[in-house]
Amino acid sequence: VGNLRTNYADGALALTVAPALVLMLIWVESRSREALVLAAFLLAAAPLVKTEGLLFSGAALIAAAVVGRHRGAALRPLVGVAVAALLPAVAWALLTSARGTGQSQVRPRLLFDRGFLADNWRRYPDAADRLLSELVHGWRPTLVVAALALLLAVIAGRLAPLLFLSLWCGLCLAGLCVVYLTSTVPLDWHL
Q: Quick check: pTM over 0.90?
């Protein structure tokens, strides 16, 4: 959280997404409407803190849908959360586009450009390597706490949190690598 004193939004994003993940886990475990409503607010705020927040929010919704469905939950409440989470990001994108200030550094259409992919495929494994290194070295205390929490969940026989967080982490890592693959700026700028 030390980067809150700087102009980096990573810490602020983590402080927004982490409680949202806990609330989504509470919903997966107990179907608590209150937890889901609070999670919706945080998931909606995440993309407004930093662009990657949209990816993290989407990954949380997918992970909750998969694990929740596996545990017999109805998915209808998650549709409402998804809409609530997307509305601020869509409104912001429309506003910046209308004002001509919405210059994206990511070009998703490049995922379908064979020439671009042939020339830049190496960015994906490089991004994955750099992200994992950043995670291990820059967020070590957080990883230790998360590992202990997951170990306790396994010992207690609560596999839903393990599945939820594993799926969320995998989706986020893959998504960030795709973002960095299709970015208009060098990888070093991101990482």
A: no
- Count CB-CB contacts under 10 A for residue 32: 14
* 40 alpha carbon, distance to own chain's centre: 14
Classify the C-alpha dihedral 163-169-173-175 as positive or negative.
positive
Q: Please give the chain's pLDDT, 191 residues, in tens.
A: 555 566 678 889 989 999 999 999 999 999 999 999 999 999 999 999 988 899 999 999 999 999 999 998 899 999 999 998 889 888 887 887 788 776 666 677 788 888 888 888 888 888 899 888 888 887 788 888 888 988 888 899 888 988 999 999 999 999 998 888 888 777 777 76
Look at residues 79, 65, 186 and name the one whose alpha carbon lies nearest to residue 122: 186
Tokens 């998650």 locate to 78
SS3 letters for the chain?
CHHHHCCCCHHHHHHHHHHHHHHHHHHHHHCCHHHHHHHHHHHHHHHHHCCHHHHHHHHHHHHHHHHHHHCCCCCHHHHHHHHHHHHHHHHHHHHHHHHCCCCCCECHHHHHCHHHHHHHCCHHHHHHHHHHHHHHHHCHHHHHHHHHHHHHHHHCCCHHHHHHHHHHHHHHHHHHHHHHHCECCCHHHHC
Phi, psi of 9 (to 5 degrees): -95, 5
